[in-house]
Specification:
alpha+beta, Ribosomal Protein L22, Chain A, three-stranded antiparallel β-sheet, 3 helices
């Protein structure tokens, strides 16, 4: 029993999101949700939404699921999305290239084994 949620084109660099994904990977959904909810960083919000969406998808696919404690986070993947490239003015009339990186988030939840 597996359910997943995918969030694409998140305007946060994958390098900044991966440490938060590493913390919730393998834990139960209720503990991961509580940890992301109390995390006072704006970067945790897309992960929280993807986790909530994966839980809702699991409930729709399997109506016997009654709480978050019955599920565990099987996989959290943060992939590189497209890069927006643009130029900003720099010193002495030069142009400095800028790169805004995007992320794709995949969250997979499954039934707890024990």
């Amino acid at each position: 029993m597996v359910a997943r949620a995918i969030s694409k084109y998140i305007r946060i660099s994958p390098y900044k999101l991966r440490p938060y994904a590493d913390v919730i990977r393998g834990s139960s959904v209720d503990k991961a949700y509580a940890w992301l909810k109390t995390c006072a960083v704006k970067r945790a919000e897309p992960l929280l939404k993807a986790l909530a969406s994966a839980y809702a998808n699991a409930q729709v696919k399997h109506p016997e699921i009654d709480s978050m404690a019955t599920l565990t986070v099987k996989e959290v993947r943060i992939d590189q999305g497209p890069i927006v490239k643009y130029f900003k003015p720099a010193a002495m009339g030069r142009a400095a290239p800028q790169r805004k990186r995007m992320s794709h988030i995949t969250v997979i939840v499954g039934k707890r084994l024990s």
